[in-house]
Design a protein that fits this description.
mainly alpha; Methane Monooxygenase Hydroxylase, Chain G, domain 1; 6 helices; globular
């Protein structure tokens, strides 16, 4: 982060820690979905607790970073962009935590033949998030490399859309009650929205990157 933050190593470390929390949250989210599909309640509960801890950690770091940016008048010309980037990125891990929590609360009955598609969808949303984290790191350290990661965010978001649409068709082709179909579609949308949030942050990051390079 030397290019943008020449004034404090502490702030560099805090932003790195924030991004680590988001990246780790994505991995835990993926494993939570897989554990749920496998019926592994013990591991699922551990993932639920872990993602809650990581989301809380990300929130605390975001607030600390925001406070430093204001009270120490750091990078005033980029402060608004950095704050917006942190807040929108925080929404990604918030969505992952919310989704895992909904699996815990509602415990949807997912037919075995749909397990792979649900796991694939979660994996694609996670891949979009991981690419986003790499793009944000590049924004602070090597702004010219941001585009190398942003195109991956968009790629995986489109893959998640494709998988999600196919999965919803498969859900409604099931020979079961309409209420169960709607319930399953709700969880498809929940998982899909993780990649949607990642794409929305990527759109903002693309604009911030242009501003930094002109």
């Amino acid at each position: 982060m030397a290019i943008l933050f020449r004034t404090t190593k502490i702030l560099e470390g805090q932003i790195d820690d924030f991004l680590d929390a988001v990246a780790q949250g994505a991995l835990v989210f993926h494993m939570a979905v897989i554990d749920f599909l496998a019926g592994d309640r013990r591991n699922f509960t551990e993932r639920l607790e872990k993602i809650d801890q990581l989301e809380n950690r990300a929130d605390e770091l975001r607030r600390t970073i925001e406070n430093q940016l204001y009270t120490q008048t750091l990078i005033p010309e980029h402060r608004g962009d950095v704050l917006g980037l942190l807040e929108s990125t925080d929404s990604v891990i918030n969505k992952m935590k919310e989704t895992v929590n909904q699996f815990d609360v509602e415990s949807p009955e997912i037919p075995p033949e749909l397990h792979k598609s649900f796991a694939d969808l979660a994996g694609q949303s996670v891949a979009a998030t991981e690419a986003l984290v790499s793009a944000i790191r590049a924004f602070f350290k090597d702004v010219k490399a941001v585009k190398d990661h942003l195109h991956k965010v968009y790629f995986y978001e489109k893959e998640a859309d494709r998988t999600g649409d196919a999965l919803k068709r498969a859900v409604f082709a099931q020979n079961t009650d309409l209420s169960k179909k709607i319930h399953l579609r709700y969880f498809v949308l929940h998982i899909q929205q993780v990649s949607d949030h990642a794409e929305a942050v990527a759109d903002r990051l693309a604009i911030y990157t242009i501003k930094r390079t002109i």
